[in-house]
Amino acid sequence: MNNRGKEESNSMSKNELSSTMDSILGSGSFCKGSIKVDGGLRIDGTVDGEVVVSGTLTVGREGVITGNITASQAVIGGKINGTVRAEQQLELQCGSRLEGDIFTRSLVIEDGVFFEGSCKMSRGNDSES
After folding, report:
1. Per-domain boundaries in the chain
2. What is 11-70 written as a DSSP string?
3. What is this structure's pTM?
4. Confidence check: pLDDT of 77 > 80
């Protein structure tokens, strides 16, 4: 990598870094057990177990997760049955279904979402600003 490439990668914002897609569980795939990914993950298949992602978790419209989720950010278009902990932000897209509790700093819910559970929002460590 040349110096220019290093400068560009060092100048990326936190959101750009955390939104990269490092792993994909494709449509028609089934995983039983825990998944832990350092980086971003997209799920278009079915997961029966815990999902832990250090970056952004994206669940496509056909994606189904039965289990607890922990991620920096999460964008949900499919079905979730479990607790969702999204450190920065959780986005529930139109047509998604979430049955479980939410813990996040920022929540976006589009029209047409089904959500049943409780939501706890925190400001995190904003006292420094």
Report:
1. 18-119
2. T--HHHHHT---EEE-TT-EEES-EEESS-EEE-SEEES-EEEEEEEEE-TT-EEES-EE
3. 0.81
4. yes
